[in-house]
Design brief:
By secondary structure, this protein is α/β, with parallel strands linked by helices. The chain contains nine helices and eight strands. It has an eight-stranded mixed sheet, sandwiched between helices. α5 links the parallel β2 and β3. α4 crosses α5 and α5 packs parallel to α6. The longest helix has 14 residues. The radius of gyration is 18 Å and the shape is globular. The two termini are about 30 Å apart.
Length: about 280
């Protein structure tokens, strides 16, 4: 399967994988913007030093009793101190747009997810909400036998993701698309081994909710999961730390199991990852 995926030309690679060339990112002019200098995280945290990642698996529902603060999504400067947590090669010219300062997965978490998902064998991973590339870069770095399909409905984010992938030297193992996920599901012809889902959560204000629902996402988080299931049962779903765990369980078919992993950086829970269909640690 993988012999045909080593082509350097993006459009030839896409044709070999059965992907719609009409949505190739190379069909659009490559442009790197000089937007705000800043950092990208899923929540507020003003510490600058290196981070320590801890993960905890759980199947129990835990309520967050912390009082929620009003969050200003326009205040990007507070994320700048964490720029190396998000991209360790930030100073090499990493590009981000306004939303990406607070929506990109921290690099240590992205690396952990990639290592958990990727085995030492050929596989194709789809990230249909790739943003500026935080997760796709780590998937590509996890193994030279991985081919990543990176897609986003925002062409500017895809352009920046391609630029950032070049900085990490993995652009040749990533195929970039500009497309709507629900359309892409019906257009992909190749076998997808795993889908990584990290759709928009509605900005930092997701933390103001005592309990977050999948239906608060746009597109709806339930619809996203059901669409992904058309391609594979192997799904890694990155979710807010205050997600309703009962909703995660409601996605399961009879007899299925989900592993819910808590991602902790510097003793603070950042996100949860729900792993569906994959072998879970006992």
């Amino acid at each position: 399967m993988m012999e045909s995926l080593t082509l350097n030309d993006e459009q030839e690679m896409m044709a070999a994988m059965g992907l719609p060339i009409a949505f190739s990112s190379s069909k659009r002019p490559f442009h790197v913007s000089d937007d705000e200098e800043g950092d990208n995280v899923r929540e507020e945290d003003d510490e600058e030093d290196g981070c320590e990642l801890t993960v905890e698996s759980t199947r129990k529902r835990k309520k967050n009793k912390k009082k929620r603060r009003k969050i200003d999504p326009d205040n990007i400067s507070k994320y700048y101190a964490q720029r190396y947590r998000i991209f360790s090669l930030f100073d090499e010219g990493i590009q981000l747009d306004h939303e990406s300062w607070y929506s990109t997965t921290p690099e240590e978490i992205a690396r952990h997810i990639a290592k958990k998902c990727v085995e030492n064998q050929p596989c194709i991973i789809l990230d249909p909400f790739c943003g500026v590339g935080g997760n796709i870069i780590q998937f590509a770095l996890a193994s030279d036998q991985v081919m990543v399909i990176a897609s986003d409905i925002d062409p500017d984010k895809v352009t920046m993701a391609k630029h950032n992938a070049k900085i990490y030297g993995v652009q040749d193992r990533i195929s970039f698309l500009v497309n709507d996920f629900f359309k892409l599901v019906d257009q992909i012809k190749c076998k997808i081994d795993l889908i990584f889902l990290s759709p928009p959560w509605g900005g930092p204000e997701y933390l103001t909710h005592k309990e977050y629902s999948l239906s608060m996402m746009s597109p709806d988080g339930f619809d996203i999961y059901n669409a992904a299931r058309k391609l594979t049962k192997n799904i890694a779903y990155l979710l807010p730390r205050n997600i309703d765990n009962e909703e995660i369980n409601s996605l399961l078919e009879p007899g299925e199991v989900v592993e819910i992993e808590k991602n902790i950086v510097n003793k603070k829970t950042k996100t949860l990852t729900a792993y569906f269909g994959m072998k879970t640690d006992e």
